[in-house]
Specification:
The protein has a three-stranded antiparallel β-sheet. The chain has a three-stranded antiparallel β-sheet with strand order 3-4-5. Strands 7-8 form a two-stranded antiparallel ribbon. About 20% of the residues lie in helices and about 40% in strands. The protein is an alpha+beta fold. It is built from three helices and eight strands. The chain is globular and about 65 Å long.
Length: about 180
């Protein structure tokens, strides 16, 4: 596959069900109505799947380095073939440990950030945060909903939200540039 074709395929939008939504903040109006502001992101597994599908399982690898005790950088290397010549190009980015599962979270975040260096999921940064309100109770079919743990007035609550709709330009089969 040609370099340009690889780069285009890496940048393709993800299926909406591969997009996760993280609660950035949550609250309650003075009338008692709950709300949350959510932002989109993509999980590491979806990134790995994208790299496997575009580059082949033997056409990419990742490597981690630890510049400080509580930080990690990840390099994602991709193989580019030009006739008889094989070139590996690596792009790096890093992250610190996270509050939950410190090491695992740091590794995942570093890889997600390195993936963005390749254009994977970069279009998600163009999406604005979305304000959503929870549904009254857990739906019987949760496939079109997201669950979030939020802390309101020092009380943790488990809330269900209808999955936000992505704009047309952020869907597979569209040009997201």
């Amino acid at each position: 596959m040609a370099t340009k074709e690889i780069m285009v395929k890496l940048k393709d939008p993800f299926d909406p069900f591969d997009i996760e939504w993280r609660v950035q903040s949550a609250g309650e109006t003075k009338h008692g109505k709950l709300w949350a502001i959510v932002v989109p992101y993509v999980e590491n597994r979806a990134i790995q799947e994208r790299l496997d599908n575009v580059c082949g399982v033997d056409g990419w690898y990742n490597k981690y380095e630890y510049p400080t005790e509580k930080s990690v950088i990840c390099g994602i290397s991709i193989k580019f073939q030009d006739g008889q010549n094989t070139n590996w190009i690596t792009k790096w980015d890093g992250a610190g440990e996270t509050a939950i599962e410190a090491v695992k979270g740091g590794l995942s975040n570093a890889m997600k950030r390195a993936a963005v260096q390749w254009g994977i999921g970069r279009y998600l940064y163009k999406l604005e945060a979305v304000i959503i309100t929870p549904v009254d109770k857990q739906p019987a079919d949760t496939s079109d909903y997201i669950m979030a743990q939020v802390k309101l007035n020092n009380v943790k609550k488990r809330l269900w939200f209808k999955r936000p709709k992505l704009p047309v330009w952020a869907l597979p089969g569209t040009d997201n540039e």
